[in-house]
Design goal:
By secondary structure, the protein is of the alpha+beta class. 31% of the residues lie in helices and 26% in strands. It starts with a strand and ends in an 8-residue tail after the last strand.
């Protein structure tokens, strides 16, 4: 099992909208993540900086790395691009974080 962490940046004043959209996560996107062996996925918000911090577990990195190529993922990115920092292809600007401690 691989444990991954990352950070992204939410636009100021968009926390409620971000939460609302995730509370209504498209079932087909949830299935894309499950098919890519993603589990134990959480996203936290630092309200002072608007930094989103995500953690997740992945069994198969090869399947996980296919998520960006899925058309459902690309639709989700386009849906979210107006409320967070995004790349030209609408993918979120995301920085992988280094794992420095874990207590099981």
């Amino acid at each position: 099992m691989h444990r991954l962490g990352f950070k992204m940046k939410l636009h100021a004043g968009k926390a409620e909208e971000y939460k609302r959209r995730h509370d209504e996560l498209w079932p087909e996107l949830g299935q894309v993540l499950k098919d890519a062996t993603v589990s134990d996925y959480s996203i936290f918000l630092d309200e002072e900086t608007n930094i989103l911090f995500g953690t997740l577990k992945v069994e198969d990195l090869e399947k996980f790395n296919q998520i960006p190529h899925n058309p459902i993922t690309k639709r989700w990115w386009a849906y979210m691009a107006d409320i967070m920092d995004a790349n030209p292809d609408n993918s979120p600007v995301s920085v992988d974080l280094k794992d420095v401690f874990y207590l099981a």
